[in-house]
Amino acid sequence: MNSAAIDQPAQGAPHISDATVWMRHLRLLTLAVAVILLLFSRNAMAMVDAWWNVSTYNHCLLITPILFWLVQQRREELAKITPKIWTPGLLWIGVAAFGWLLGEAAGVSFARQLGLVMMLQGAVITLLGLAVTRGLIFPLFYSLFLVPFGEEFVPFLQMITAKMSMVFLGWANIPAFIDGVFISTPTGYFEVAEACSGIKFLIAMIAYGALVSNLCFQSWQRRTLFMIAAVMVPILANGIRAFGTIYIAHHTTTDFASGFDHIFYGWFFFAFVLALVMAVGWPFFDRKIDEPMIDGETIDRNSHRGSPKLTPVMAMAAMAAIVSAPLLWTSVLAAQNSPLPDKIALPAVDGWERVDYRPTFDWKPRFDGANHQLLGRYRNLANGAEVDLAIAVYDRQEGGREIVGYGQGAFDPRTDWSWSRNLPEPESGSAIQITAPGPVVRDVQSYYRIGDTLTGSGSAVKLATLKAKLLGGNQQAVAVLISAEKVDEAGPRAAMDAFRKALGPIDKLADEMAGLR
């Protein structure tokens, strides 16, 4: 049966009701969605796992029922629109599939999951048509909140929260000293940890703000102002929260302040902030409560009436080809061999000797899925300075085995180590300072070798990985980390630089570890 038989009965043919047309298109859409979710089930399950197990994304569990409710709000008006195949919707699916391919090649889960959601959006656009898409434009946009995002902003938000706390402490005449994300007062030593960055509430507030902006406002100016408030108020509130904890600790005890923070701020403070934002926005709501979200008759009347160029079978076949292409391409490249040596060992370094690894506070970089990991300590024969060397080697990168990513690298956020600050970057590398209870302070320089690239930049690693996976070539990836504990005010930078110079070219060392020399 061709699409004309579905969308518009031929002259003299029996009339097909709008309900029947909708049912046929919805069956096609259900089939398309099921096939896409099956083909990309690994990415879909990864999203669900993040929603359920990562507290930052727990709010995503509400997005699916909200989407259902948004569609139900528009149901009566959507029934006035005639669905039809819209060929240009395949372009959106193509863009989504290409984005998924880039994410898969570069090892970026956000791009893979965004590509999956966009493919589902493309199925709606293609199989229901432009007119129906106009009626569903906000639910389609809102579905993007299904994609977990925001962890990359945690260090920035930690610094913002710490600096705001210092400002408020100054206003309260409480003497304080800041060192990265650590604040010292006469009462104690406080860390603006990842959990204190406010990222959980900020992301949830952005999703909530977008929903309220659509439901309660018609003016784009008012929507924009409400969204600005939905972003800025949580950030400011989180700074007040951190300051409040330190202020209470200053006048009571640290233990009391910590308990008060979890009970009062965790349950009541942000609920108050949410209510405050709504109360401020309430007088400016300009959408009537009984006003329909869309005008189905107007949308249908203004829609293009030309016959679709593809039959439903052709549209489904085209969609299948588009979404299958990146899977086939990555499967072919994954079959390439990238052998590693069976065993590797830490190198001998002129002027330095291997000694027992006895850190003041246990430290081990995190590289999930690495084929080889080494960690050892060296002592300078001339002055006794000690430096640690860690090496991780991958035969290839894939989902769950990326050399850079959240939680990977210089420290494991599941341990007591915390990021403190970024340090001046060495040549072809990156450097951070991390802190453990004590406090124990450690500097870490990180170098990554992918193909011909030696870098400390996570973005550069992703680009080099993308190039290797899309175009073929050596898939091996190596991380080399030079680290030392801070034992005096001068810091360990001089010892680490001396060790790196004695170690020789890091790209050569990395290639030897990967079996490429």
From TrEMBL:
Alphabetical keyword list: Cell membrane, Hydrolase, Membrane, Protease, Transmembrane, Transmembrane helix
Membrane topology field: Multi-pass membrane protein
Main location: membrane
GO molecular function, one term: hydrolase activity
InterPro entries: EpsH-like (IPR013426), Exo/Archaeosortase_dom (IPR026392), Exosortase (IPR019127), Exosortase-1 (IPR017540), Methanolan_biosynth_EpsI (IPR014263)
Enzyme class: hydrolase
Membrane-spanning ranges: 26-44, 50-70, 90-111, 123-147, 198-217, 224-244, 264-285, 310-329
Subcellular location as annotated: Cell membrane
EC code(s) of this entry: 3.4.22.-
Domain of life: Bacteria
Protein name as annotated: Exosortase A
Domain (Methanolan biosynthesis EpsI) ranges: 319-505
